[in-house]
Specification:
53% helix, four-stranded antiparallel β-sheet, alpha+beta, single chain
């Protein structure tokens, strides 16, 4: 009876691995590689934007305050790691900063607040709202707040998705062939071959996870 239960468990596990890898994990990774950066984002109007140093003195941190569709938000950027790269590119596109040496020129305009005329010239923006406010804001071609996976991450996600799906299909195919061979043996001999991962090993594994196996071993050593 244990053999049949073991086969049932393994077949159930096999189906789960196949479905999970081929229809969920693999396609999810591939979808990340081809995801449209603004898919699912809200579209609205940029109503306010100001930039200033985080402290009264010049520092490596700048504070960005924006308001989109009556939703205010505040973000902090560490300039030494160029976290504000998207913001600078946006300011260059809006001709607020020059193309050349825009990183250094930012100091000369702070504190800065976009005028009503400048705000009116900005096309519709795309944004997502998180627990702490706007966690993604895309204006024009640039993400001012947040980011999207780079090309390296997208390629890695695509390759990983293909690998997961191939692994799921390959391992499932090998397992099916093994099961077919075992059932052929059963039809010829009337004896169902044992699987390497038997019912008893699954039970022992569950006992080990819950600490029951160690208690049994202690009781056996005490009896001896």
């Amino acid at each position: 009876m244990n053999k049949f239960i073991s086969y049932l468990l393994n077949i159930t596990f096999l189906i789960g691995v196949f479905i999970g890898s081929v229809f969920y994990a693999g396609p999810t990774l591939i979808a990340i590689a081809f995801k449209n950066p603004i898919a699912g984002m809200n579209q609205g109007n940029l109503q306010y934007l100001s930039i200033d140093y985080l402290n009264s003195r010049k520092s490596n941190y700048i504070e960005l305050i924006v308001q989109v569709d009556e939703i205010p938000s505040k973000s902090i950027f560490f300039t030494r790691e160029f976290e504000h790269r998207g913001l600078l590119n946006f300011l260059v596109d809006e001709q607020i900063l020059p193309v050349q040496n825009s990183y250094a020129k930012l100091d000369s305009i702070l504190p800065f607040q976009m005028s009503f005329t400048q705000l009116q010239q900005v096309n519709k923006v795309h944004y997502n709202v998180g627990e702490l406010g706007i966690d993604q804001l895309k204006a024009g071609d640039h993400f001012i707040i947040g980011s999207i996976p780079g090309y390296g991450k997208r390629i890695f996600a695509f390759i990983s998705g293909i690998f997961v799906m191939t692994l799921g299909i390959g391992s499932s195919a090998l397992a099916v062939l093994s099961l077919i061979q075992n059932f052929r043996t059963y039809r010829k001999t009337g004896d169902l071959p044992s699987l390497p991962n038997s019912f008893d090993s699954k039970v022992n594994g569950i006992k080990f996870l819950f600490g029951l196996k160690s208690k049994e071993n202690e009781e056996q050593s005490t009896d001896n």
